Amino acid sequence: MLRNCARIIPGSAASRCFATSSKLTNMKSINLKLIMSTFLLRVHPDVMQVDRNSMKEVDQSIKDHNENAMKTLNAYLDIASAGCNGELKADDLSTREFPLEFFIPTTKKVQRSLRKIKTAGDAEVIHIKGNMYTRISHSVKLSDKLVEASHHALMHRRTVNVAAVHWRKDTNAVLRDLFRQADLPVLS
């Protein structure tokens, strides 16, 4: 009955409702590392961008810390990419927590504003050898709902797209938070 009704009235609610389920099967794959490239350039120890008016060189301890955090971020991006694209494997879900913490050089403009409000920025910045670094931190924890949907998708291939939608929502929230903390524009 609904099928006949949808054919008779092409713009009806019934036809729109059925169209959403077919839309899930046609999702394009996404490349999270390409999406994250501006963030990666901002925190990568070898190419860390320094404000030309601030410090001359980034401290080695910051570079080492960011390098270790990059390994964790890459592991998360690999798993999230597989989840977002519906290509998860059973062993991908073995790690459920990814603590991400980066430090980037604080610009002179931000340093001046923090000096005016001394107590507000203490948790967000650190001082090493007279230089100020801004802390970017996000502890990624795969939710039970996400893991459950992923396990269900591994057992029933027809539910892969449902799990991929959950992965995309969770990953989008994580990436938006990292971009916001790094003071980078988010492009949707």
Please, could you describe this protein's structure?
The chain has 188 residues and is of the alpha+beta class. It folds into 2 domains: 1-29, no CATH class; 31-181, no CATH class. It has helices spanning 2-8, 13-25, 32-35, 37-43, 60-84, 108-116, 144-155, 160-181; strands at residues 97-105, 125-128, 131-141. A hairpin with a 2-residue loop joins strand 2 and strand 3 (131-141). The longest helix has 25 residues, at 60-84. The protein is elongated. This is DUF4460 domain-containing protein. It comes from Aphanomyces astaci (Crayfish plague agent).
- Into which percent range does the helicity of residues fall? 40-55%
Rounded radius of gyration (Å): 22 Å
Strand content: 5-15%
Low-confidence stretches: 1-24
> Taking all residues together, what is the mean pLDDT?
79
According to DSSP, the number of beta strands is 3
